[in-house]
Amino acid sequence: MPGSDIKQLQQRISHFAEERDWDQFHSPKNLSMALIAEAAELVEHFQWLTEDQSHSLPENKLTEVEHELADIFTYLLRISDKLNVDLLAVTERKILLNEEKYPADKVRGSAKKYTEY
User: What is the pTM of this model?
Assistant: First the structure.
């Protein structure tokens, strides 16, 4: 079951932080700030690339991007764990909301926001 995999990963990350006495720093506020900092580091890897270049990163650059993605995912898991948020459940609910806001027959091929159509 995928949800249990996420819970196990959250527990592993929690244990990692506890072993280092870092839990004291892991408030949702601090974790969200760390997450956005990691997201900015991810963006740096794509800055100034063309669309085509962004799809075909050299192996060393892809490895760096993978590390940034892992950092982002780790902070996201940690925040959700601290707030007792079931990421799978809330993502499913959000997809349903987006399906209502962005009906395929109205938005296909368009990047407009739901308030613009």
Answer: 0.89
Q: Where are the domains of the chain?
A: 2-110
Confidence tier at 29 by pLDDT (50, 70, 90): very high
Q: Which pair of structure tokens corresponds to residue 72?
A: 């982002």
Q: Is 74 exposed, middle or buried (0-12, 13-18, 19+ CB in 10 A)?
A: buried
Indicate if the pLDDT at residue 1 is higher than 70: no
Q: Which two tokens stand for residue 105?
A: 């027959």
Structure token digits, residue 28:
């949702």
Q: What is the DSSP string of 47-104?
A: TT--HHHHHS--HHHHHHHHHHHHHHHHHHHHHHHHTT--HHHHHHHHHHHHHHHS-H
Instruction: Give domain 2-110's CATH number out of 1.10.3210.10, 3.40.640.10, 1.10.460.10, 1.10.287.1080.
Output: 1.10.287.1080
